[in-house]
Design goal:
2 strands; about 55% helix; globular
Length: about 180
Amino acid sequence: MRTRSDTEWAFVVEALRDHKNVERALAAAQELQRTATTADIPRLLELLKDKSFFVREAAAWPLSDLGVTGALPDMLQALHMGWQEGHDNDGLSAALSDLAEASPAESALVLLGELSPQASPTSASMRSGCSSSAMASWTHNMPIKLPVRTVTPGALARPAPARPAAYGQRWTDRNNAPEKSGGE
């Protein structure tokens, strides 16, 4: 794929902002998603800061499709902007989720890096602009599942009892079956 010229980018962005012709704007968003390359990443990141929520959502999909986990902080900032403007951001939320699901470990590292005290100035501005409640509400539904380390070998070998023991019975660790207690 070839890189878009400045004139082609201007045409795409103009079409994305054409609120009077929804079909043109939608076609531009679909074309951008279908044809974006890694060479387009800097411009897509810039579009995430656009004043139009539609342009921001249109920029998020190619970044997600290209697997640009480094764009997660900018995508979260765009999501926050949309919420502050009163938009539901369904498209942006879906693009974020798809990206996080496709690269869970890498996404988690990027997001954890953004929360660290040693994060870059960009991270600090993202943290100040994106409230913790906004980040928490999005990350609550994130499909990221990090590997769990067991502290002791065999800690997960025995399942917990499915139900409490009946009166006069106790559960055994051996086979998880009730056993009569002494005295009966």
